[in-house]
């Protein structure tokens, strides 16, 4: 059963901490994505990557960075966590080429609370 | 500025009746549209899609309609079942891109 695995289901961090959210996929997908889900706003794209060591900004990259050193792993980094980064974070992956052709496979999400 | 909009945050229907979920988009470059379904504590899962060269795509109880001139699509579920209760996200993508934009979601409740 192919899947996208997010390392933590729930996280509580303090303001100012550096936070790492990890995502691993076992489908040999080229593309990987990080979204955050907030009530009334839906899923908003933070960053995505279409190849190892490549990254592209999404709609809301401020306060975040990403790392993709290996094809199967895509990390989201909150450099200095703030309370407005409290959210559900969803990782997704897809085959290369047009993502829409194949759709995305999502992880189960990480609920991050910054206090 | 949201490029994909779902203006109804919630919808409640009776089991056996039709559920109609609506979605509007603003970016004329979008040419592929998808619907995802999300249960609590799970990631969204792909449900059905449609290319801009079509105006209808059907898969069992699920049908998606696309009106390009109005930049509007809808998802019809007939007949609705209690297990369909979930949040439904509309998503759109442009041909050249690897990324997708999502709407805010509509929470569907199907009552027995």
Key traits:
heterodimer; A: mainly beta; Immunoglobulin-like; seven-stranded mixed β-sheet; B: 112 residues; six-stranded mixed β-sheet; 0% helix
| Radius of gyration of CA atoms of chain B, rounded to a whole number | 13 Å
Which architecture of chain A per CATH? Sandwich
How do the helices and strands follow one another from N- to C-terminus of chain A? EEEEEEEEEHEE
Quaternary assembly? heterodimer
CATH H-level homologous superfamily name of chain B: Immunoglobulins
Strand content of chain B: over 45%
The name of the CATH topology of chain A is Immunoglobulin-like
CATH-assigned fold name of chain B: Immunoglobulin-like
Q: What proportion of the residues of chain A is helical, as a percent range?
A: under 10%
Span between termini of chain A: 36 Å
Number of helices of chain A: 1
Q: Share of helix among residues of chain B? A: under 10%
The helix-strand sequence of chain B is EEEEEEEEEEE
Reported for the largest beta sheet of chain A, the result is: 7 strands, mixed
Largest interface: A-B, 31 and 27 residues
Walk me through what this model shows.
The complex is a heterodimer of chains A (115) and B (112). With 115 residues, chain A is mostly beta strands. Chain A has one helix and eleven strands; from the N terminus they run βββββββββαββ. Chain A has one helix at 99-102, and strands spanning 4-6, 10-13, 19-25, 31-38, 42-49, 56-57, 64-70, 73-78, 87-94, 105-106, 110-114. The model of chain A has no long low-confidence stretch (mean pLDDT 91). With 112 residues, chain B is mostly beta strands. Chain B has one domain: Immunoglobulin-like. In chain B, 0% of the residues lie in helices and 56% in strands. Chain B is built from no helices and eleven strands. Chain B has strands at 4-5, 10-14, 19-25, 30-38, 45-51, 56-59, 62-67, 72-77, 86-94, 101-102, 106-111. In chain B, strands 2, 4, 5, 9, 10 and 11 form a six-stranded mixed sheet that branches. Chain B has a five-stranded antiparallel sheet with strand order 1-3-8-7-6, with no helix packed on it. Chain B is globular. Chain B starts with a strand and ends with a strand. At the A-B interface, β4, β5, β9, α1 and β10 of A face β4, β5 and β10 of B.
